[in-house]
Amino acid sequence: MRVLFIGGTGFISTAVSRMAIERGMELYLLNRGIRSTEMSGAIQLTGDIHNPESMRSALKDLKFDVVVDWIAFTPEDVERDLKVFRGRTRQFVFISSASAYQKPPVNYIITESTPLKNPYWEYSRNKIACEELLMKAYRDEDFPVTIVRPSYTYNTYLPVAIGGFGCYTLADRMLKGKPIIVHGDGSSLWVNTHAEDFAKGFLGLLGNDKTIGQAFHITSDEVLTWNQIYQTIADELGVEAKMVYIPSDFIVKVVPRLTGDLLGDKTYSVVFDNSKIKSFVPEFQATISFREGMRRALEWFAEDKNRQGINENVNQEMDRIIQAYASK
Ligand SMILES: NC(=O)c1ccc[n+]([C@@H]2O[C@H](COP(=O)([O-])OP(=O)(O)OC[C@H]3O[C@@H](n4cnc5c(N)ncnc54)[C@H](OP(=O)(O)O)[C@@H]3O)[C@@H](O)[C@H]2O)c1
C-alpha cells in the first residue's frame, strides 16, 4: 500500500508513521523537514503545504492508495486538499478532533453519532466545517474520505488540562513543590490515549473501502478522573501533588485563552464507545495503561535535559489563576 502522510513527524503521527513502516507500507512523508524526528524507512518529500509551488514540486505526478492530512484545520485547508488530491488517491483521511462532539454533552457516552457542535471552541468548529465540506465532496463526487476524530492522544508529553502542551512545565512545577490547578473538583471523567494504541486502530482503517464516507474515534477504554490523572503523574515523578481545585468558569475569566480547552472540551465527563472502530478493525484494543504511558513519557523527558522545556507564559498564567482564586 502506497501511503502519503502530510506531516507524519508530529505528536500523534510519529508513532503511526513508525508502525506503518513496521507493517511494510510504502510510506511517503511530506513535511518541511524542520522536526528532526528519525524516520528511517520512509520516503521523505520536502514541501510546505501552504505553498502550492513547493507542493507541486514535492508531489510531482505521484499517486497514492491513501493520503492522510494530519494538519488540515480550516475549510480553506480542505479546499486546497480537494484540489490537490482529487483523482490522486483511493482514500483520503481527514484528521478531525473528538472536541467537535456536542459541548456540553447531553450524554457522557460518546459514539460517532453524537452530534457535532461546539459553541466554545473555534478550533472544533473549524474541524466540523472541514468534515462537512469533505462529506459534501463524498456525496456529490464520490471523493473517498474517511474521517478520524482523535481524542486526547499523547506520546512524549503529559496530557493534562492546564500545564502546557508539549512541554515539561507541569512536571517541573510538581517537582518544585509548586501548586497545580485541577479544574472543577477533579472528579469528571476523561480518557487519554497513547499514540501507539491509536496507531493500531488507525492503520487498520487504511486501504479499507468500507470506511469511505465513515467517521471514527479511536481511544483507550481506560476511564480516569482528572484527580487520578494528576495523581498518576505525581506518583511517577515520586512527589506529592499540591492540587488546587478551581471551577472552570473562574479559570477562563482569568485566562480567556483556556475557554476552548476547558468549556469546549475537558470540563465535561466523556467516555468513548469504541464499538465502531472495533467492528471495522477487530484486532484493535488499547493496551497501554495511563500509568505505563506516563512512565514512558517521563523516561523520555529524563533521557535528555534539552527536552525539558518550560513554558514561562503557562507558568505565569497558572500562578495568576491561583492568586486570583485565593484572593477572591
Ligand atoms: N494530540 C491530540 O490530542 C489531538 C486531539 C485531537 C485532534 N488532534 C489532531 O491531530 C493532528 C495533529 O497531528 P500530529 O501529531 O501529526 O501533529 P503535530 O504534532 O502538530 O505535527 C505537525 C506535523 O506537520 C508537519 N508540518 C507542520 N507545518 C507544515 C507545513 N506548513 N507544511 C508541511 N508540513 C508541515 C510537521 O513537520 P515539519 O515541522 O518538519 O514541517 C509535523 O510532521 C491535528 O490535526 C490535530 O487537530 C490531535
How is this structure best summarized?
The chain has 328 residues and is of the alpha/beta class. The chain is built from twelve helices and 15 strands. The chain has helices at residues 13-22, 52-59, 75-85, 122-141, 169-175, 195-205, 226-237, 248-254, 259-266, 275-280, 290-303, 312-326; strands spanning 2-6, 26-31, 43-46, 64-69, 89-95, 109-110, 145-148, 153-154, 179-183, 189-190, 193-194, 215-216, 224-225, 242-246, 271-272.
Polypeptide structure, described:
The protein is α/β, with parallel strands linked by helices. It is built from twelve helices and 15 strands. It has helices spanning 13-22, 52-59, 75-85, 122-141, 169-175, 195-205, 226-237, 248-254, 259-266, 275-280, 290-303, 312-326; strands at residues 2-6, 26-31, 43-46, 64-69, 89-95, 109-110, 145-148, 153-154, 179-183, 189-190, 193-194, 215-216, 224-225, 242-246, 271-272. The strands form five sheets. Strands 3-2-1-4-5-7-12 form a seven-stranded parallel β-sheet, sandwiched between helices. A two-stranded parallel sheet has the order 6-15. A two-stranded parallel sheet has the order 8-11. Strand 4, helix 3 and strand 5 (89-95) form a beta-alpha-beta unit. The longest helix is centred in the middle third of the chain and has 20 residues, at 122-141. The termini are far apart. The mean pLDDT is 97.
